[in-house]
Amino acid sequence: MDQLAITGGARLAGEIRVSGAKNAALPALAAALLADGPVTLANVPHLNDVTTMIALLGRMGVTVTVHDGLRIEVDPNSLEDCRAPYELVKTMRASILVLGPLLARHGRAEVSLPGGCAIGARPVDLHVEGLRALGARIEIEDGYIHAEAGRLHGCELLLDKVTVTGTENLMMAAALAEGETVIENAAREPEVCDLAAFLNSMGARISGAGSDRIVIRGVPRLQGTQYRVLPDRIEAGTFLVAAAMTGGRVRLREARAQDLGAILAKLREAGAAIDSGPDWVALDMGGRRPQAVDISTAPFPGFATDMQAQFMALDAIARGVGTISENVFENRFMHAPELQRMGADIRLEGHTAVVRGVERLRGAPVMATDLRASAGLVLAGLVAEGETVVDRIYHIDRGYECIEEKLRQLGAQIRRLARGSR
Ligand code: UD1
Question: With contact defined as beta carbons under 8 Å apart, do 240 and 276 qualify?
Fold first, then answer.
């Protein structure tokens, strides 16, 4: 199991390119199952979660060809088996995204329940209820969702909670349904908009994505297409926080400021100067120590839960006291005790963390517990005195492309240790 060793203290400076978004690439790969011809996806990030989704499609008999690393061609016509097995689903919850497309296009699906997850229960009840309302017969047996349907039929869906992959699953299923589907209380995340645009390029008729009311007029078939995955706003946000924590400056190419609204507002509040153009964002901290900020996570356009751990790391070394409230997931503070081991002053009160900034963190061996928690630990390592070794970084490899290379490009002292190489 690899580790990352970071020697803190370097002030980050320079320019890097933001990769394609994991959370747009995964639904797009699943949506390719809806087409009746090959789909080519560009700007797909090289990540473990993407590899898992490709393995899942391959297991179903779908032909997936990876060209030059970033371009992936999916030919769904060779599909033989509509089953997503536990061994793959348990490593990546987003595997649930194949449920809607399989059902809509092939009339059946067997998808393992994702099971427990480090950041809370994360049920999929809203996916299942929505598909039932669209006309699917669904049984849950032996840990699997067994679903069957003739052609799905459009209906009104009111989601009890805002769910990103739930909205995506239902939008994909409804794209091939007969008649009109309306999703109320839909997720408004940029990745949902991007999936709608991708489906429309396949011939779907979807409007309203980006608002909380999405209207899908079903079509009988969807054709193959070419599509470029949008930039990863969470990766972009993580590098901006890294630069801010070190008092540095960074320019991100292929970053979209319009997707980063709440994150940029908090960075400005922390004292950063931010500038942006149509496809770049720059941050300059001018050598200053950040000011603590209060964070309260919420669905988009609110503050992303996927940036919460990174801002906890920022507050840990900021001037003043910051309060961090996690409202999306029930158990997403596992990075707090690890940050405390590095000398952070954090008090947990239910779903709120009160973080009193300290002058200096100390390097320590720490353990990554989930994808974004591990990003928070890497950021803390960048400003800690001495060496921090982050263990279990397979979590970080699920969602960050070449994180250590990109940080090194900005001047960080970071290296990957293969197990046993120390
Ligand atoms: C997606 C993102 C993830 C991000 C999260 C919240 C992908 C692949 N992953 O995850 O990075 O952290 O959005 O922005 O896009 N819920 C239910 N029942 C359901 C579905 C969800 O109760 O059927 C609850 C969840 O437990 C959670 C909340 O709704 O408390 C939001 O979860 P959801 O938006 O569904 O997260 P994901 O789509 O899994």
Answer: no
Place of tokens 């978004």: 21
> Which of the 8 DSSP states describes residue 362?
B
75-92 per-position pLDDT tens digit: 999 999 999 999 999 889
How does residue 70 score in pLDDT terms, banded at 50, 70 and 90?
confident
DSSP annotation of 265 = H
CA atoms within 13 A on the CB side of 249: 8
Contact (CB, 8 A) for 55 and 44: no
For residue 1, what pLDDT is reported? 77
In 204-334, which residue ranges form alpha helices assigned H by DSSP? 233-245, 261-269, 308-316
Encoded tokens for 249: 């400056």
DSSP assignments along 106-165, one per residue: HSEEEEE----BTTB----HHHHHHHHHTT-EEEEETTEEEEE-SS-B--EEE-SS--HH
Peptide bond into 123 cis (omega under 30): no
Angle between helices 164-175 and 125-133 (to 10 degrees): 20
Residue nearest to atom 21 of ligand 1 (CA): 163
- Give the pLDDT of residue 59: 95
- Band the pLDDT of 10: cuts 50, 70, 90: very high
The amino acid sitting at 213 is R
Taking alpha carbons only, the member of 213, 2, 204, 228 closest to residue 105 is 204
Ligand 1 center to 420 CA (angstroms): 36
Q: What residue's CA is closest to ligand 1, atom 4? A: 306
Nearest atom in ligand 1 to the alpha carbon of residue 299 is: 14
* Mean pLDDT, residues 135-163 taken together: 96
> Per-residue pLDDT for 359 more than 90?
yes
Global pTM reads 0.96
User: Does residue 198's CB lie within 6 angstroms of at least one atom of ligand 1?
Assistant: no
Instruction: Round to whole Å and give the CA distance between 415 and 396.
Output: 14
